[in-house]
Design brief:
By secondary structure, the protein is of the alpha+beta class. Helices cover 39% and strands 22% of the residues. The protein folds into 2 domains: 135 residues, Jelly Rolls (Sandwich); 76 residues, Winged helix-like DNA-binding domain superfamily/Winged helix DNA-binding domain (Arc Repressor Mutant, subunit A, Orthogonal Bundle). It contains 8 helices and 11 strands.
Length: 238
């Protein structure tokens, strides 16, 4: 990993930042913004620098002042899936901080970038001022966003049968032995959820049944061999 370089130029002020119009902190009072100014650090990252990685602890929030940062996940077989490109005024790492969870994606500088960094404990008083309901809703939104992104990565990188297998294991719940459950979706709804054609889903179900991994009885599914089904769900795209 490359070393972060620090510019000699003065850090932009949170009070008068030109990116404030699209920033998350633009609604704060002048006193609160001044407090952020005192707590933040400012530096630059060269192109190719990793700001944070999936699975690492979130220690703070990056506010991008200039440049472009690529946010991505590494999916099946080590294949990279870009989630979005962040530009000036965007926050990075805030989802993990607000959701009190590890980072679930990587962030890499695509150009030389200038970044203001706010330690997580700087944001704690601001979050504490929110009601328990708001804090709970924020954590829930973080979880839902992470789940949706995960499904998008699966759709782009995994075969329909592998996506279906992973979904069946999710419905089967935790455990080692057989499981029986009712599919909550019709074949058409299941196809829409998995991003596949209905005939593809029907063929995949029949294939899993033929391999004696599952047993189908109308809308009910019985997992016959969880170990082999789990192995099938971990196969990368062809």
């Amino acid at each position: 990993m490359k070393t972060v370089q620090t510019r000699t130029k003065t850090a932009p002020s949170c009070v008068s930042c030109s990116k404030q119009g699209r920033g998350a902190f633009c609604g704060l009072s002048t006193d609160a913004l001044t407090g952020l100014d005192r707590a933040k650090s400012f530096g630059t990252y060269p192109r190719g620098q990793i700001l944070f990685q999936a699975g690492s602890r979130a220690t703070g929030v990056h506010c991008l002042s200039s440049g472009i940062v690529k946010l991505y996940r590494v999916g099946a077989g080590g294949k990279e899936q870009i989630l979005r490109l962040a530009g000036p005024g965007d926050l990075l790492g805030h989802r993990a901080v607000l959701g009190e969870r590890l980072h679930d994606h990587d962030a890499e500088a695509m150009t030389d970038v200038e970044v203001c960094y706010l330690p997580a404990d700087t944001l704690a008083p601001l979050m504490a001022a929110a009601s328990p309901l708001v804090r709970s809703l924020v954590r829930k939104l973080v979880e839902e966003a992470a789940e949706v992104e995960g499904r998008l990565v699966e759709r782009s990188q995994l075969r329909a049968e592998v996506r279906l297998t992973a979904f069946l294991l999710h419905l089967a719940g935790k455990g080692d032995g057989p499981a029986r459950f009712e599919l909550p979706l019709s074949r058409q709804e299941l196809a829409d959820y998995l991003g596949a054609a209905p005939e593809t889903v029907i063929r995949a179900l029949a294939h899993l049944s033929k391999k004696r991994l599952i047993k189908l009885e109308g809308r009910f599914v019985e997992v016959l061999d969880r170990v082999r089904l789990t192995s099938a769900a971990e196969q990368p795209a062809d």
